[in-house]
Amino acid sequence: MTKSIDSHLKWLGLLFLTGITAGLVASVLTILIHLIQAISFGYHEGSFSLQIAHVSPIRRFFPVILSGLVAAFGWYSLQKYGKPFKSISAIVKKQETVHPLSNFIHGMLQLITVSMGSPLGREGASREVAVALTATWLPLFHLSKNEISLILACASGAALGAVYNAPLATVAFIIESILLKWQKDYIIAAILSSFIAVWTVRLLSGNEIQYQLAKLAWTPGLFLWAIFAGIVISFVTFAYKALLNHLPKRDLTSQKFLVLTLIAFTLVAFMSLFFPEILGNGKAGLLYYLHHKFDFSYSLLLLIAKAIAVLITFYAGLYGGKIAPSMMMGGALGLLLGQAWNFLLPLQLSIPYAIIIGATLFLAIINSIPIAATLFLVEITGQPILNALPIALAVGTSLLFQRLMQKLTKRQNKVFH
């Protein structure tokens, strides 16, 4: 009995330590991101997302080129001279060995390059660094491989949730995206580590809502549009996901990787002369769609530019996240589809709500996290939980549409074979 209590207390302590580690990582990296962005783009007050459009075109261009150099030679050197860095998926599912220094550098390269203008997401930075630091103290405890995998999964997810101040979504993300199993001990571990990480950040940095919106209102048209969007936006998103999934895997020690990386970042830098919001993880773009006067041409072209920027950067073989870029691109689709609906039909809907639903759909499909995505957009916009209902309706429609398309594809394959 005493041994069982000691074991439970030890496990509880480990989860607390995991959450605190993830929270500290999120806090420190957030400060570093703002510092690198301010130095790179030369603004003295405000945030990158709000200031990037006011930075002179030439001042936008050169930091992105420099970011490409850091990316090319950083990952080239890490792969050639460092110990192999494993993906979080391989570490958790295949229980592969973590080399903390390599994963730490891998995460920091993502943070530096995105802060200097790479169009990819930066959530991978906090996840990689949290896993690296957690892996340094795990050997102090005698844990099984399964326990180590669970702790590292929680560290990875909790760091992401701490950056975005979204504990509920983080619990779902850990289960849906990393552990892939709704099991009681997994859920408890995810809840404890996620909430402790978020509370750590709130204690150190305050309770910031990153995309704060006033309470969004329901309308009859909103629910009809959610079903419509669940089909239309899903179709576009699945096509884009197919493109991403078919990109070749690069040898980071090859000359081709170096050349493609420099070409990709040069193209991104050139596009940023006309579309500054493509730079960074996508927050600037989503805030633009939410708060600026609607301009059809610019909104559409910005979406296309971001989609191309993300695609060519991944094509080159670079690393980065997909969460914020997905939200920006989905938000753009929601905006365009919502504006078209309001123009053509009498049943009006809230455009900010349409943007949030579009962002959720794109995020859910690209990252295969329907529940986490729904909760995520509610939390990061400061909405009451009931406002998840129209979002969930759109996501549910998307899932049904996906299953229908899979069945039709199977039938077609049977007919042709």
TrEMBL record:
InterPro entries: Cl-channel_core, ClC, ClC-type_chloride_channel. It is a multi-pass membrane protein. Its main location: membrane. Keywords: Chloride, Chloride channel, Ion channel, Ion transport, Membrane, Transmembrane, Transmembrane helix, Transport. GO terms for molecular function: chloride channel activity. GO terms for cellular component: chloride channel complex. It holds the Pfam family Voltage_CLC. The keyword Ion transport applies. It is found in: Membrane. The chain crosses the membrane at residues 12-41, 61-78, 150-174, 186-204, 216-237, 257-275, 296-317, 323-344, 351-378, 384-401. The keyword Transport applies. It comes from the Bacteria. This is Voltage gated chloride channel. It comes from Streptococcus uberis (strain ATCC BAA-854 / 0140J).
